[in-house]
């Protein structure tokens, strides 16, 4: 099989095999491949080149994703697979981990803080969201151990979001359900309601809308 190439737009190089277009690479990477017009390769050599190109694309795409925001390993792997880089995804992620660009622990700490401060989630909901992102349970447990409930924030949240429902039993139940969905425990909800002046017994009882 014979490889040939021609320059495309910007820094793109289009490579053909036996006269038929096969794949495109950036010019800098193309130079590292040692390809020249008329280069002869066998099936194994061609497959090695394809794998190298796929890894390069996967790595570059992952870098572009990380430039926008931090990602967990699972998030990156899923997005790379959807983009068609399933084969190169794991190796690309390992390279990024080695360089410090990907860290599940760092991501989890930042994400947990965001969920707590911006979305006002409690520990249980934070745990669920971190698990959905593919974070290891040991990391989740460590982060939750470091996460403390801000009782004043919870009281403020109840007053702001559920204050209009606190006048009757039905409204209390609606409030409790909403806070449970946000990840707060019965004990945390009970104590916050008591601070507001609602002496409602909720322990052991599950309310549904």
What is this structure, in a nutshell?
This protein has 209 residues and is of the alpha+beta class.
Secondary structure blueprint with pairings:
Layout: E1 2-7, E2 12-17, E3 20-26, H1 27-33, E4 39-40, H2 43-68, H3 73-82, H4 86-98, H5 104-117, H6 123-132, H7 137-146, H8 151-162, H9 169-181, H10 186-196
Antiparallel strand pairs: 1-2, 1-4, 2-3
How would you describe what is shown here?
This protein folds into three domains: 2-98, Arc Repressor Mutant, subunit A (Orthogonal Bundle), CATH 1.10.10.10; 104-146; 151-196, no CATH class. A hairpin with a 2-residue loop joins strand 2 and strand 3. It starts with a strand and ends in a 13-residue tail after the last helix. The protein is α+β, with helices and mostly antiparallel strands. Helices cover 60% and strands 10% of the residues. Strands 3-2-1-4 form a four-stranded antiparallel β-sheet. It has helices spanning 27-33, 43-68, 73-82, 86-98, 104-117, 123-132, 137-146, 151-162, 169-181, 186-196, and strands spanning 2-7, 12-17, 20-26, 39-40. It is built from ten helices and four strands, in the order βββαβααααααααα. The protein is rod-shaped. The model has no long low-confidence stretch (mean pLDDT 85).
Provide tags for this entry.
four-stranded antiparallel β-sheet; 60% helix; 209 residues; 3 domains; 10 helices; Arc Repressor Mutant, subunit A; rod-shaped; 10% strand; 4 strands; alpha+beta
